[in-house]
Please model this.
Amino acid sequence: MAREICLVAPYEQLTEAARLVARNCGYPFDVEVANLEDALTLLPQLEARGYQVLVSRGKTAQLLRQHTSLPVIDIKTSSYDVLRVLADLIGQPIRIGIVGHDSVVRDCQKVADMLNIRAESILFDQTEPLEYEALRDRVRDHFSRHPIDLMVGDTIPQRHFRDLCGDFRLISSGQEAVQEAIESAASFLRLLKRESVNRHHLSTVLDMFEKVVFSLDQDGRITHANQAAARVFQMSRAELMGKPIEAVDPALAIARDTIANGVWEVGRVVETRQGRMVCYQYPIESDGECHSIVFALERVEHIYTIEQKVRYQERQSGKFAAQYHFDDYITHDPVMQSRLTLLNSYAQTDATLLIIGESGTGKELLAQGAHNASRRANQPFVAVNCGALPPTLLESELFGYVDGAFTGASRKGKKGLFELAHKGTLFLDEISELDKSLQTRLLRVIQERQLMRLGSEDVIPVDIRIIAATNQDLEAMVAEGTFRQDLFYRLNVLKFEPLPLRACRQDIIPSALALLRKHAKHYRRHVVDLDLDLRQFLLGYHWPGNLRQLSNIMERIAIIAPDAVATLSSVETALSDLKNKSKPPPGCAACDLTTGDMDSIRLRVVSQVIAEENNSKTRAAKRLGVDRGTLNRWLKDPS
Model:
């Protein structure tokens, strides 16, 4: 087994001491003899032999450290080494000169003073250039002014200046100093190996990720890259190391202050030369400051693939299923009950259904109910929010793609939601948010019940029932040119409008109680009822957020109510959002509905109904059971 530590001895006495230590040392090491001038010539051979740690002394150690990436351990000169040189001079009328590098002989003057030995010191700084003639002149000049009887020093005065004094003694590192240095080298080597194992383990873990992972220093330069990074950006790890991240791809540029400030970032989508990628930036802090970050990238298509797998598993486990039925929609309002009867008849067909209603009126619950009441009840119910994704992502989400459709596309391709909903129902929520370009593609799928994945010319037939929902006036959007007229007519085959909660005031308390008990069960609370004052309070509010807002309030009450019957006084904090409990619904004057004569009362009622029907006189007349002409007469409106 090759040895991992090499001691470079700049003089023969140190070589002998090292060999004596090697005989009894618990950690094997090699010894090479090389003086200051030869050490750098020997260095390439030492690196080629695979040594992990070098050991040397004084200026030789310093030069090696400056020219190699290997760690270099210094052999210190101990007080025992100095005593061995000076002990026999105690009490003698002699003056000594101490000459050499500060790192080797710096303690010699202190020991001489302690022993009452007169001494003059000329110490060379580690940074001084080795210009021997200039150093020789300096030593000769000093000792001409301060004569000495004996020179003491390291190997430099031994080789170059000893003729300036009749007697010279070398301060050599003894076995103790060599032993200490070798033990330090062995400890350092064990630490290196432990860190190497940890780095290898971490690198192996990172290489298992499909994500691209970089570590960046505070200047945004790459200090580590995993295999995925090298593969995706078609560069070796050696080529990546040290590069600014923007040199890999300009789209990956990171502002330096975001690194210095330790800014977290998750989900930024960038267009790289290798395709669309999502960025993740995680700062690494030490002592309250950010010195580096982990910068990860993931292909958008890979996220799609993972989501596709999740969707498949959910479908297999029944999670791609509608949870609600018509019975879950609580209403005692005769008009709404008749509408639900109509919706149930709609559910028996495969015709496209458009649900238009205010936010919070339970449009998705009704869509699920329609699915569960249909012949497709045992097939997938796939819902997508058309406003939740940007158009480019939504397109591949809806229609899927094939291998090679775009840079970085999964080799296996991907099914879209239309395909996942095959034989079942596709629910398109917030259809009004659909981009114009996707409106065109959706129109063809609805019309032909066929689609093409992105990048494919193959037509895929799909057997689906489409239910769309919106809280916007699509007719007005058609008039404004923001929604395709032909798509509107394709969607508006069957139309359903749930009533807002303010139009079904007799449903407020039954719905509130059902929601209260549902939330109480979830939070393991015992509240099951509302007192009279609280009920009156709820009845007096106009509920602009409809059932969703009512559910939020009931959830709060379920959490904070102290007793089984919630009282108005005990849950006031839960009602802080309801600014004016007696605020009338839009279209009604701020006065008692029954104030005044019959014409005044009728006018207020009619105005309220028109407001509740989004200012549609046609729907208001139908709801009131009269024709449009009668409604106009009541309003004294000739139009």
In short: The first strand starts at residue 5 and ends at 9. DSSP finds 27 helices and 22 strands in the chain. The domain at 5-76+177-188 is CATH 3.40.50.2300 (Rossmann fold). The chain has six domains: 5-76+177-188, 79-172, 216-299, 320-496, 501-575, 584-639.
